[in-house]
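agent> Task received from the user: take the single chain below, predict its 3D structure, and emit structure tokens. No templates, no multimer pairing.
agent> Plan: (1) validate residues, (2) run structure prediction, (3) serialize to tokens, (4) report one or two observations.
agent> Step 1 OK, no nonstandard residues flagged.
tool_call: predict_structure(input=
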Amino acid sequence: MPEQTEGSSPRNQLYVQSSWDLGCRWELDLIGRYSDNLPALGVPRYIVGDARLAWHANRNLEFSVVGRNLLNGNFYQYGDDNWLGARATEVRPEVYGQVICRY
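)
tool_result: status=success, residues=103
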């Protein structure tokens, strides 16, 4: 059984997160992720980053812009697994706005 799973999990991974209070009710969050290749599944290594810039209008209202899976374009996180019937998952960069209202 170990021969079947060899190379299906990343050998190395790295996750780095940083959050800053920029003052004047602004925040900046940055996240970087690295995952080694998965040779058994044919998935190459990848490096991606996430970013969030937020402004707090007041104690209960926040506006933010978020970018996810940036830096690397489209990439695959998992490979095909015919035994489980799973297909490779392609991840694309995305950017979206967010409004949070706390009550």
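agent> Step 4: summary for the user.
Strands lie at 13-23, 26-35, 46-58, 61-70, 75-78, 89-91, 94-101.
agent> Done.
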